[in-house]
């Protein structure tokens, strides 16, 4: 497939055609056909809610989990649906027991919401949190593993680590990380928010104690279709954030893990039930299916990254092999004396990008003011000329900030 035009008709997605949308990574975008399928499920629910919730929902969820499991290399019995990966991280951290003196590890690349969750969990019981400083820019994935192992101690009980980092867009060597932690008797909680649909997954082979991810990003499902995978030997410890009827259910036909997470009160299950349709529908949009989709998006992200780096004279901050469908490029430092604060924009450069150029792309303060990044996403509806528009707009902002 050529990168000079979209791989699919952009009108399959309900995106504003007047906006150059280069930020699929934040919240995804769900194709219209999938939204219509979800609405059919909602209509079915509302026609006979008692019948749907009490007699149909559980087997439908079983079918959906089996389809998702086949896609991500997991047994459906070890998967449960939740709203999103942040809920998955909170679910695990709130379920586990730590003691004063225990140490939890998290990287400086971790998503802010999940960093807050691990600090909350540690503070409740007097444990401590140690931050792993993974460099960025970096030249090799070995730097990631070395940074993690340098922080491990005999007090380490858990590692919370991204599969794909949110701000910096790095695909971390998750197999090596999990293997190294397992060898040391340390459990790993993987924040895989961006991984499903971006990189191939086989969760059973990975062997992480806990893995949580989103279907609404690169799989393009409706919002609130997140999942939590818990290794079988760890399932008895993990309880949902909402304790409901399953807590004292006399049922013995399925695991307590499935019983408790299967019903957490009345909620809209249509996003989770749409996942089998999503996997099939998206896979049929491109000849060759999901393997070609993932490869195309990676190649587009790399080509766009190279375009921006060359135009702005910025060296590559990470090896090509650590890039999936996201890529972050360091920008010139902010010229503001204090960190930028706005309810609408992440950085003062984002305002002209949106308001003047109609380009939706995040400019992120990272790791701290005045350092910042621009993070691009690559999805099937994007094409290289869109990133050329972004490159020209960024060059204009750079020239204004540093006039000759």
Textual characterization of the structure:
By secondary structure, the protein is α/β, with parallel strands linked by helices. It is built from 14 helices and twelve strands. β5, α7 (174-183) and β6 form a beta-alpha-beta unit. α2 runs antiparallel to α3. The chain is globular, with a radius of gyration of 22 Å.
Summarize the structure.
The chain has 404 residues and is α/β, with parallel strands linked by helices.
Set out the fold topology.
Blueprint: E1 20-21, H1 24-27, H2 32-47, H3 49-72, E2 79-82, H4 85-95, E3 103-107, H5 112-125, E4 128-132, H6 142-151, E5 156-162, H7 174-183, E6 187-192, H8 203-206, E7 210-214, E8 226-230, H9 256-262, H10 270-273, H11 275-283, H12 290-312, E9 326-330, H13 350-355, E10 359-360, E11 363-365, E12 372-377, H14 384-401
Helix pairs in contact: 2-3, 4-5, 12-14
C-alpha end-to-end distance: 41 Å
Output the helix-strand order: EHHHEHEHEHEHEHEEHHHHEHEEEH
Number of domains as seen in the coordinates: 2
Mean pLDDT: 97
What labels describe this entry?
7-stranded mixed β-sheet; alpha/beta; Aspartate Aminotransferase, domain 1; globular; Aspartate Aminotransferase, domain 2; 3-stranded antiparallel β-sheet
């Amino acid at each position: 497939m050529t990168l000079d035009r979209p791989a699919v008709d952009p009108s399959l997605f309900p995106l504003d055609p007047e906006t150059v949308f280069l930020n699929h990574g934040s919240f995804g975008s769900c194709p219209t056909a999938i939204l219509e399928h979800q609405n059919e499920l909602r209509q079915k629910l509302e026609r006979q809610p008692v019948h749907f919730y009490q007699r149909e929902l559980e087997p439908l969820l079983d079918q959906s989990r089996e389809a998702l499991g086949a896609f991500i290399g997991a047994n459906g019995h070890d998967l449960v649906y939740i709203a999103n990966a942040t809920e998955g991280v909170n679910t695990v951290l709130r379920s586990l027991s730590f003691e004063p003196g225990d140490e939890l590890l998290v990287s400086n690349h971790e998503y802010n919401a999940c960093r807050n969750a691990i600090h909350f969990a540690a503070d409740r019981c007097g444990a401590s949190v140690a931050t792993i400083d993974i460099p960025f820019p970096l030249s090799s994935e070995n730097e990631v593993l070395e940074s993690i192992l340098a922080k491990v101690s005999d007090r380490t009980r858990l590692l919370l680590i991204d599969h794909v980092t949110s701000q910096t867009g790095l695909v971390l060597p998750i197999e090596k990380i999990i293997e190294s932690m397992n060898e040391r008797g340390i459990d790993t909680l993987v924040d895989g928010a961006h991984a499903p649909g971006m990189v191939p997954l086989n969760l059973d082979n990975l062997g992480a104690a806990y893995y949580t991810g989103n279907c609404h990003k690169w799989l393009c499902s409706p919002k609130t279709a997140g999942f939590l995978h818990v290794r079988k030997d760890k399932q008895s410890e993990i309880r949902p954030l909402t304790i409901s009827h399953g807590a004292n259910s006399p049922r013995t036909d399925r695991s307590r893990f499935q019983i408790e997470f299967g019903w957490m009160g009345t909620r809209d299950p249509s996003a989770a039930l749409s996942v089998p349709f999503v996997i099939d529908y998206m896979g049929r949009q491109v000849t060759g299916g999901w393997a070609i989709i993932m490869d195309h998006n990676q190649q587009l992200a790399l080509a766009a990254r190279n375009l921006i780096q060359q135009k702005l004279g910025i060296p590559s901050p990470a090896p090509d092999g650590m890039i999936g469908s996201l890529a972050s490029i360091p920008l010139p430092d902010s010229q503001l004396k204090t960190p930028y604060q706005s309810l609408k924009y992440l950085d003062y450069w984002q305002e002209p990008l949106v308001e003047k150029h109609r380009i939706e792309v995040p400019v992120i303060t990272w790791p701290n003011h005045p350092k910042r990044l621009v993070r691009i996403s690559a999805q099937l509806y994007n094409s290289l000329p869109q990133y050329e528009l972004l490159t020209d707009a960024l060059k204009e902002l750079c020239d204004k900030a540093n006039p000759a």
